[in-house]
Design goal:
The complex is a heterotrimer of chains A (328), B (180) and C (385). Chain A has 328 residues and is mainly alpha-helical. Chain A has helices at residues 11-44, 60-70, 81-99, 116-137, 141-172, 177-183, 192-195, 197-210, 222-225, 235-260, 271-290, 298-327. In chain A, α1 (11-44) crosses α2, α5 (141-172) runs parallel beside α12 (298-327) and α8 packs antiparallel against α10. The two termini of chain A are 39 Å apart. Chain B has five helices and seven strands. Chain B has helices spanning 19-22, 35-44, 99-110, 144-147, 169-179, and strands spanning 12-16, 26-30, 48-56, 61-68, 76-82, 88-90, 113-115. Classes of the chains: A mainly alpha (328), B alpha/beta (180), C alpha+beta (385). Chain C: Residues 1-23 are annotated as: Disordered. Chain C: Its EC number is 7.1.1.-. Chain C: It is found in: Cell membrane.
């Protein structure tokens, strides 16, 4: 039986329990995702991936985590102490908040908000702040370049992301992810992703860019900027950035599943399973892309956003408004 | 045959060489001070600078510039000799920008000063290396005569301006055998 | 241990020289010597305006080993193993250039079978070099997977070369007048099998990688150079052929038995990074075809001419040019008649190719500079020698 988060009456208890659950969920899924990524990368690259630690290398991420935790936390000379250490925390904290309005299951929404979508967009926008702080605070030129790139990138990609999300919100007439999910059915033709494929496509592209994943991983482009904004971070400082990246991948996949793929709804299986299946399908797509494509150049990235995705998203929005106007 | 442009390179000594046995077709020796003029002629002829090599001889440092056209068997070397006491000659990096690094390399290994070089600093060695490793000790140096095979047909064209005539047959033969 | 002092960095003389100039709102960035895409230990000083490169200056010498000095101090035979270490990716070509120049100097005739073996192993080695370049270049462009496929193919190659030479990377297989060992009996078959394998893989590489729109966006129109620029800087090999001149030392200045083989010389007129990329991809096929011809027509006979135990070439000088994977390799040897060369000069093609970089990189984005650097196909030990 799935635990019913809605049974906690007091909103504060629900928030605390929800947050704890989210932390556990993020931690666990982060580890699983590390394994999945390495395993998929391995198979894409004609090699088995992690193999020796535990069955099928399943314990590899735990060993990785232990290694990261055990490492010395080094700070470069001349770095701004407070900014430098605030950045990884700031990277990780907002992402966890983003999980709160996500409806994993009818009974498993940590916090039902009528403006859940806005909350997620607002807090995921905060992520870029941590990249700036990390790049600026570490007193490293590569970090600075990475930070500058990340600002331009997230400003450019938040616009079409927002527009594509708005198209769905307009169709559904709600900003509540729970509400949007319930408006879709269990079958693919009832999903917004199928009804409005353009918005789904734009959302996916922007999601990859927002999470700084290849082929849009410019802020940390290792062959150009060594490691970009987290060049100087070691141990858990780097670990938190790493975890935040995976957490935000899960968030955007979760939002995509809820907005475009019908969330927890699906035949036969329990809701939470369907939700996870959809989330992991999108995650696998992102991993697959990362290990297949070369990295785009910075101006190409911005061009793609401003010249293609933003106008397309606007057109899509207009179409949605017209359809909604005639329909309603 | 000694090509016609050699006459334009100023007062030079030229010697045809056998490509089959030396890999070169022509050796041109110029006064160190005239090197830029000589090489400007080669640039106009479309030659590519392959390499700059210096050697430490009894007579001084011999700087050897390897040139060839892009296509075909036509490697020629231009040589200039500078004394040990004042190893200085004009830089050709204004004509051939690619010579920049080659000259810096010669500066590294021999301490040869290329006048007019825009950026004459150590290239391969650290800046504070302190010595020039390929400079030979006095008694290890050999004279040019010890390094040249007998029968080099050097033609300095100083006495007679039209000196391209002699011994053309040898090089032509070498070229044709290589083609076959 | 001395405490780390950030000021000592500024005392590095190269940086100090580089710093002055119009540096208002400019960023001086030291790319390397430990940077993922400088392929080893090359350092490039950059002056950036935003991400645009105003000035670039490569700083060399981090793996300088003074091969030319060793050439003077070792006997002719002793210096041969050094040739495997100059350019570790195309060691055979360096072997050949040195062996060839000494053979010219000493007047040693190479038996026909040895020439065919030389051609076959050099072309195999060229393929392994190009495959590695391909993987590493895509790594520079942010694609992590192709290098694994390249290494997968390269593994078969290295096995073949190991069976022939006994080593997998730094070969010292040539000797004056031939090669050290005869090839094993199954060598032709293994070569042909490999050629078949590579040909079956190349279409996949073209579909998955070469035709990828992101890759094209990163390579096309980047780092354009014309023949004139290449000539002035002495850039050779795929860099020159990528600027439209179909020049290959194997044809232009024929050596060994290359005139007997029928092979095209790929060249592309665009002069950009993509042209250089395409030249190298085409050369994989060219080398395959040469290997096929060489192993199927390989004559019998001795594999090396009789060379004296202590080689003392007559006084004189000789140079020998070989087409390496990166361009024209030229070894110039001067002899005073003794057991050691009087002077050995190694012309590394990468050295001249890299010297164009400062010109090509000016005004480009940092990411383009990485792409240009990769497209020049650098092997730092060869450049630093």
């Amino acid at each position: 039986m799935t635990p019913d988060l809605m049974s906690f009456d007091h909103p504060l208890t629900r928030l605390v329990v929800g947050l704890l659950c989210v932390f556990a969920f993020v931690g666990l899924n982060g580890l699983v995702l590390v394994w999945v990524e390495r395993k998929v990368a391995g198979h894409v690259q004609l090699r088995p991936g992690p193999l020796h630690v535990g069955p099928y290398g399943l314990l590899q991420p735990i060993v990785d985590a232990v290694k990261l935790i055990g490492k010395q936390l080094a700070m470069p000379a001349g770095a701004d102490k407070y900014l430098y250490w605030a950045a990884p925390l700031l990277a990780f904290a907002p992402v966890t908040v983003c999980f709160l309005p996500l409806p994993f299951d009818p009974a498993l929404a940590p916090m039902r908000l009528n403006t859940g979508l806005v909350l997620i967009l607002a807090f995921s926008g905060l992520g870029v702040l941590s990249l700036i702080l990390a790049g600026w605070g570490s007193n490293n030129k590569w970090g600075l370049l990475g930070a500058a790139r990340s600002v331009a990138q997230s400003v450019a990609y938040e616009v079409p992301l927002l527009l594509s999300v708005m198209a769905v919100a307009l169709t559904a007439g709600s900003l509540d992810l729970y509400e949007i999910t319930t408006q879709q059915g269990a079958w693919p033709w009832q999903w917004y992703g199928v009804k409005n494929p353009l918005a789904f496509f734009i959302f996916l592209v922007c999601a990859v860019a927002e999470t700084n994943r290849a082929p849009f991983d410019l802020p940390e482009a290792e062959s150009e900027l060594t490691a970009g904004f987290h060049t100087e971070y070691s141990g858990m400082g780097f670990g938190l950035f790493f975890l935040a990246e995976y957490a935000s991948m899960i968030v955007v996949s979760g939002v995509a599943a809820a907005l475009f793929l019908g969330g927890w709804q699906g035949p036969f299986l329990p809701g939470i399973l369907w939700f996870l299946v959809k989330v992991y399908a999108i995650l696998l797509l992102m991993i697959w892309m990362r290990w297949t494509y070369p990295r785009v150049r910075f101006d190409q990235l911005l061009n793609l956003s401003w010249k293609w995705l933003t106008p397309l998203a606007l057109i899509d929005l207009v179409l949605v408004v017209i359809v909604a106007g005639f329909g309603g | 045959m000694i090509p016609a442009f050699v006459a334009k390179m100023g007062p030079v000594c030229s010697a045809p060489m056998d490509h089959a046995t030396t890999g070169m077709t022509l050796s041109i020796t110029v006064e160190a001070q005239n090197i830029v003029d000589a090489i400007t002629v080669l640039d106009a002829e479309g030659y590519m600078l392959e390499d700059v090599m210096a050697s430490d001889l009894q007579e001084g440092f011999e700087i050897t510039y390897h040139f060839s056209l892009l296509d075909g068997i036509n490697r020629l070397v231009v040589r200039a000799l500078v004394p040990h006491e004042a190893p200085r000659l004009p830089s050709i990096s204004a004509v051939y920008p690619g010579a920049d690094w080659h000259e810096r390399e010669c500066y590294d290994f021999y301490g040869i000063d290329f006048a007019g070089h825009p950026n004459l600093y150590n290239l391969l060695l650290p800046e504070n290396f302190g010595s020039h490793p390929l400079v030979k000790p006095e008694k290890a140096r050999k004279s040019l005569a010890d390094l040249m095979p007998l029968g080099y047909l050097v033609d300095c064209g100083l006495a007679e301006p039209e000196a391209e005539k002699p011994k053309p047959a040898k090089v032509v033969k070498a070229a044709t055998t290589e083609d076959a | 241990m001395q405490a780390f002092d950030p000021k000592t960095l500024a005392q590095d003389p190269t940086s100090v020289r580089f710093e002055p100039g119009p540096t208002e709102d400019k960023l001086i960035l030291s790319m390397g010597p430990q940077h993922p895409s400088t392929h080893g230990v090359l350092r490039i000083l950059l002056e950036l305006d935003g991400e645009y490169i105003v000035r670039a200056e490569p700083v060399l010498g981090y793996v300088h080993r003074m091969h030319e000095w060793m050439g003077q101090e070792k006997t002719y035979f002793q210096f041969m193993p050094n040739m495997g270490r100059v350019d570790y990716l195309h060691a055979m070509a360096w072997n050949w250039a040195y062996a060839g120049s000494v053979e010219r100097l000493a007047g040693i005739e190479v038996p026909e079978r040895a020439e065919y073996i030389r051609v076959a192993v050099t072309e195999l080695n060229r393929i392994s070099s190009h495959l590695l370049w391909w993987g590493a270049y895509l790594l520079d462009l942010g694609a992590f997977t192709p290098i694994m496929y390249a290494f997968d193919d390269r593994e078969f190659l290295l096995d073949i070369l190991q069976a022939v030479t006994g080593s997998r990377l730094t070969y010292s297989y040539f000797t004056f007048g031939g090669v050290y060992n005869d090839v094993p009996e199954d060598f032709p078959k293994r070569c042909l099998d490999f050629v078949k394998l590579l040909r079956s893989r190349l279409p996949m590489y073209r579909d998955l990688v070469t035709d990828n729109v992101i890759l094209r966006g990163r390579c096309e129109g980047i780092g354009e150079m014309d023949v004139e620029l290449a000539r002035r800087y002495g850039a050779t090999g795929p860099v020159l052929r990528g600027s439209g001149a179909a020049v290959d030392t194997r044809r232009a200045e024929p050596y060994s038995v290359y005139p007997r083989f029928d092979f095209p010389i790929p060249s592309y007129p665009q002069g950009d990074a993509m042209a250089r990329y395409m030249v190298r991809m085409d050369e994989l096929e060219t080398s395959c075809s040469i290997i096929e011809q060489a192993v199927s027509t390989m004559p019998g006979g001795p594999i090396a001419a009789k060379a004296p135990k202590t080689l003392k070439p007559p006084k004189g000088e000789a140079c020998y040019a070989v087409e390496g994977a990166r361009g024209k390799i030229l070894v110039h040897v001067r002899s005073d008649g003794g057991p050691k060369p009087y002077r050995v000069k190694l012309r590394a093609p990468g050295f001249s190719n890299l010297s164009v970089f400062a010109e090509l990189a000016r005004g480009t984005l940092l990411a383009d500079a990485v792409s240009i650097l990769g497209s020049l196909d650098l092997v730092i030990p060869e450049i630093d020698r």
